[in-house]
Structure formats: C-alpha cells, structure tokens
Amino acid sequence: MHELPVVENLLNITLDHARRAQARRVLALNLVIGQMSSIVDDSVQFYWDLLSQGTLAEGATLRFQRIPAIYRCWDCGRQYPLDGQHLACPQCGSVRVQLIQGDEFRLESIDIET
Amino acid sequence: MSTTQTVPVVENILKANDQLAQTNRALLDAHRTFAVNFMASPGAGKTTLIVRTIHTLKDRYRLAGIDGDIATTLDADRIAATGIPAVQINTGGACHLDAVMVHNALAQVDLANTDAIIIENVGNLICPASFPLGAHLNVLIASVPEGADKPYKYPPMYRGVQAVVLNKIDLLPYFDFDLAYFRRGVEALNPGLAFFPLSAKTGEGFDAWVQWLAGQISDYASQK
Questions:
Q1: Which of B72, B105, B167, B183 is the most buried if burial means most Cβ atoms within 10 Å?
Q2: Closest to B64 measured CA to CA, from B27, B107, B119
C-alpha cells in the first residue's frame, strides 16, 4: 500500500501549518477519511509514529473521522449508503448512480501548543 | 505559559501529487504532446495491448513510452522492441506511479518531437486511482479471466477513467464471464464511458479501439 508517501505528505502539511502558527508542539491531527478512499488507519498510524520522530509533531494523536459512502440515484433522486454489495438504487433499481460522499482524504485541522 | 489551540488546515493530503500532475499536464500541453495513462490489474494484458497499439499507430504518430514497474525492465524492453523510445521507471516497490516519477521520466522524453506518450502504470486496481499523473486520457484495461465483478469491487478505479478496454474476449467461451453484468457495473460508475471489448492477442475488436484512440490524439493535435 501507499501509506508511506501519503504520511510523508501529511507530515509536510502539518509541519508547514504548525510553523506558520508558531507552534511549539503539535498535539493532534484531525483527519477526514472517506470509506472509499482506500486508506488504512492502522497503517497511517504506524508510519506516522515512525516519520514524526524528532519533529514538532512527534507523538501527536491522529484522530480519524470516517465518512461513509453515500450514493445518489440520477433517476429517482434517492440518496443511500453503500451496503457493501449492491450499487443499484434500492428504491427504483437504477444503476445510474453517483458517489456524493466517501472519497474524502484531508487534514481538517491540527491542535497545537504555542 | 503555553496555550493550546486548533488551527484549521482543510488540505487534501495528496495535494502535492495533484499539483505536480497539473505541472506535468502544462508541460505536455506546452509541447502539444498527448499522454495516455494505462491502468490494470497484473496479468490483464497491458503490455501486450500497448505493444499492439503502438505497432498500429507508430507510423501515423511519433510515440514514446513510459513504463512503470516495481523492479524489472521486462515491460520497457518489450515497448522499446517496437522501435519507439521508452523510459523505464522502477518504482522501488511502490504500488503505483505518481506525478513525481512521471515528471522525472518526462525529462527524458524528446517532447518537442513526440505526438503521444503511452504511460503504463504499475499493475494494480486500487492505488493508481488516487494518484493523477497529468495524462489527458486514463484508460482501464480489464480482462475476461479477472471476472465480471471488478467494477463493483474497485469503483474508484472505474470512476476515474475515460475508457475501459475489456481484453481477452477470445477467452469468453471458457469463462463464466457475465458481460451484461460487467457493463452494468461500468455504466453505473461511469455513465456513457467509451467501452472496447477486444482481444489484443487475436486482434478481434482491435480496430474500433485504435481508431478511437487515434481520434483522441488527432482531436488533441487539432485543438490548438
């Protein structure tokens, strides 16, 4: 998996914002991760512990907010969560559907000590 | 006296890749070079399809290849054997090409004298979907032996492409491949997507694919 380069990016973004806010230490990262984003929490945590050593963000807690996948049907407008098996609209059976949330992968905010 | 506070960030974590992908696109556009990113699972027949595509188009367009592989030069060697310039990227174990790797590879291509670049991504149906490269066209190569449920199992990959090729249709008589089910899945994720069932081995269905691809390259060339 590609969590290593992902965590490198995450650390760069974190340190960039921490320095700008003149942080002495980063206490926590608030991450938003969609169900469909193919990112594994444990793996991110593993690389984070390794890569953040010796930086302002060493030991910071990673808080994961998981966003469930929600689809919308183009034909009847129904919105529904992915049930793990079926993509088709549970109301009208259409397969003309669109993912409207669940592919997020962003750093929402950081908690810092100044 | 220390205080704690929350600093809003709201940044896409893969932003660095996305930005460099835009830089790649601008570089390609500056040279009027069209780039195609081929993605597939291992064993879908990517290299065979690419080699046949190159043989069919290399007299009409000046082509170059960029080949991503974990450690070997096997695929780049096959592409170089067609007579077009080929650049090998060894990803060092990484599961996908990213915009940085492609940026470095583009520096080794004579862009001013290239109409189209064929990029072969690492065989993987998950990770390449998260790393745009800056290509103008993203193509997914599926194949009959993989099974018809792949669009349902790997939706981000099927959503992020502009064309799906279904390779190895010469094997349809030997597999329980439900073509209608496969197409419904593709259509659900990516309505109206260009779809080419073919066999890169026998050549069945290949004309429609290369004519479409040639049309894409020519349309791009005539845009500016």
A1: B167
A2: B119
Q: Which residues of chain A have pLDDT under 50?
A: none
User: Hunting for tokens 């592989």 — which residue is that?
Assistant: B69
Single-letter code of the amino acid located at B27: L
**CA-wise closest residue to A58 among A66, A49, A68:** A49
A113 touches chain B (CB under 8 A): yes
pLDDT score for B224: 62
Distance from CA of B161 to the nearest CA of A (A): 15
For A109, nearest residue in chain B (alpha carbons): B8
Task: State the Cα–Cα distance between residues A10 and B190, nearest whole angstrom.
Answer: 30
Domain span holding position A50: 3-68+102-113
Show me where the domains of chain B are located: 33-217
Could you say which of A6, A23, A36 has the minimum Cβ distance to residue B155?
Answer: A36
Domain with A61 in it: what CATH number? 3.30.2320.50
B146 compared with B17, residue with greater pLDDT = B146
Mean predicted lDDT score pLDDT of chain B: 93
CA–CA dist B162, B138 (Å, integer): 6
Could you give the CA distance from residue A17 to residue A5 in angstroms, rounded to a whole number?
19
Arithmetic mean of pLDDT, B99-116: 95
Mean of all residue pLDDT scores within chain A = 89
Minimal Cβ distance to B11: which of A21, A88, A107: A107
User: Across the interface, do A1 and B95 touch by the CB < 8 Å criterion?
Assistant: yes
Torsion B214-B219-B220-B222 (CA) sign: positive
Output the pLDDT for position A85.
63
Residue A110, helix vs strand vs coil? strand
CATH superfamily of B33-217: P-loop containing nucleotide triphosphate hydrolases (3.40.50.300)
